[in-house]
Design goal:
7 strands; TonB_C; TolA/TonB C-terminal domain; about 170 residues; two-stranded antiparallel sheet; TonB-like protein; elongated; alpha+beta
Length: about 170
C-alpha cells in the first residue's frame, strides 16, 4: 500500500513536470511563430516602399562636388609639405593678444582646394583660446598659399577637395 502511494506520488510529480515542459515548448513555438509572422510582415512592408529613381549626374553636379579623402587622390601644395611649413614659419605673425599673454596652441584649418589650385571655404575651430587671434592668423597665412596647390584628382580628373593643415603657434623665448 505504501509503495503504491509513493509510486502514485512520483507519477503525479512526473506528470506535472511533463505538463510544464509541454507548456514551455508550446510557449516557445508560439513565440517563434509570432517572430516569424512579424519578420514576414516587415519584409513585405519594406518591399512595398517605392525606390526613388536616381538622378543622372551632370557635369555641373560633378563640378560642384567636394571630394573627400576616401574617394580621390589628395591635393598637395606645389612645392611639397616641407616647403609649405617653411612658408608658414617664415610668414607667420604671432597674434599680439597671444604674444602678450604668452599663449601657445596648435590650430587645424580646413579649406577647399579648387580645380585650379585656389582655396576657399576656410574653417578653423579654435577651442582653447578663441579670442587670442590664432584663428584669424591661421586663415590669413593659408590664404597666402591660394593658387599654389595641385588639385586632388578622381579617376585622373582634377576635382574640388577638402584639405586640412595644422599650424603650430609656439613662442621661441618664454
Amino acid at each position: 500500500m505504501f509503495r503504491r502511494k509513493i509510486s502514485k506520488a512520483l507519477n503525479t510529480s512526473e506528470a506535472a513536470i511533463i505538463k510544464s515542459n509541454a507548456t514551455i515548448i508550446k510557449l516557445i513555438k508560439m513565440r517563434l511563430l509570432c517572430l516569424f509572422t512579424f519578420s514576414l510582415i516587415c519584409f513585405y512592408s519594406f518591399g512595398q516602399i517605392p525606390v526613388m529613381q536616381q538622378k543622372e549626374v551632370t557635369q555641373e553636379d560633378k563640378d560642384s562636388l567636394v571630394f573627400t579623402l576616401f574617394n580621390r587622390d589628395k591635393a598637395e601644395y606645389i612645392d611639397g609639405y616641407t616647403e609649405l611649413h617653411k612658408f608658414i614659419r617664415e610668414n607667420l605673425q604671432y597674434p599680439p593678444k597671444a604674444l602678450q599673454k604668452k599663449l601657445e596652441t596648435k590650430i587645424a584649418i580646413h579649406f577647399i582646394v579648387a580645380k585650379n589650385g585656389t582655396l576657399s571655404d576656410y574653417k578653423c575651430y579654435e577651442q582653447e583660446y578663441p579670442d587670442a587671434g590664432f584663428k584669424e592668423e591661421a586663415i590669413r597665412i593659408i590664404e597666402l598659399t591660394s593658387g599654389r596647390w595641385n588639385p586632388g584628382t578622381y579617376e585622373g580628373q582634377p576635382v574640388r577637395s577638402r584639405e586640412s593643415v595644422y599650424i603650430d603657434f609656439k613662442l621661441t623665448d618664454k
